[in-house]
Amino acid sequence: MSETTVDLLIVGQGVAGSALAWQALRRHLKIHVISSPTEWPPSASQVGAGLITPITGSRLALAWRFAEFRSSALDLYRFVAHETKRDCWRNRPALRWLTIADEELWLSRCQKFPASANYLQPVEPDLVTSREHGIHGPAGSKPYVMPEAARVLMPVFLEATKRWLTETSCLSRAEFKPLDLIWDDVARHWKWRSMTARHIVFCTGYTPQLIRLPFLAAKGELMEIDLPGARQDYSWHGGIWMTPQEQDRWLVGATYDPLHLDQEITSEARLELSLGLAQWGIRNPKICSQHAAIRPALPGQMPAIGWSLPESILGRISEVTWPREKNCGVINGLGSRGALWAPLLADWLLDAMAGQPLPPEINLTRFLRS
């Protein structure tokens, strides 16, 4: 690599690092990205389904600032499609199957927050049942549709970003080692190999040895099944989720295992997902593949971004001096919502680099030790 000076050195090319790279490009900033030289272990971004849903969890809560995040996400992914000729965005409504208790909870929530009703609306079962393949909702439940749901094809987005970074000489496939960093306290910049960077941002996911946040990480497993004849105009949610792929294949997920933080697939997860499919009338599915990754979640299921990382956040490495100025940043804790959150979080982090305040809900200062 020739001697290069950049505004932003980004560590990690998952959904957060990729979104930050694109948002920085739109601001005419010079960037460089450090990405792992191997595909193993797979990251949460590589394995994730990229689902965007406004109503999540058993409490049927509207996702925080959903409309704002969705608008930013759609804007960025359309920009990427224009630049790379690879479209990764799919407007695909999602079905959520509600029990009687769920319906009562949802109706009470809509009475308190009337605007929420636009995000989850009842539909007739006959309009959504896939009679060709016999898919139906779980017994005793009714279908509701989320018309604002969508999906980002993560492999397409990540591969298009990698190709763009490679073609513009903005990517290094290398194992990142903090000891390779040198902070020049006089020039106020970082040195990494032959690279000089004014700022560095860690978008590294679950890496407790580097970013010491209070992770509530969990392994999630999903599998791909062959399901010919099933209509593909919806994603389905009810205990588990399933979303259509190409060529009659569907992605099914996802399990939650906070005890085994590895990327090994298990027969237990395969059984759990198969039992979930059986509730929809899909028995003995043809399983084409199975994958696992670690979700980097944080307390409150909210992400964390910010600058001026202290030693209480960054790992203790005596040979590395971490500056207290706004030269070192982080985007982390995106959990299962990276496709939705990453574009706007990246924008907010770049705004903060210029002095704008961050929303307190996602500001990493909430984790700082007193």
UniProtKB/TrEMBL annotation:
- SUPFAM superfamilies registered for this protein in UniProt: FAD/NAD(P)-binding domain (SSF51905)
Q: Which Pfam families match?
A: DAO
**What is one cellular component GO term in this UniProt entry?**
cytoplasm
Q: Which residues form the FAD dependent oxidoreductase domain?
A: 7-350
Domain of life according to the entry: Bacteria
Sorted alphabetically, which InterPro entries does this protein's record hold?
Answer: FAD-dep_OxRdtase, FAD/NAD-bd_sf
Q: What is this protein called?
A: FAD dependent oxidoreductase
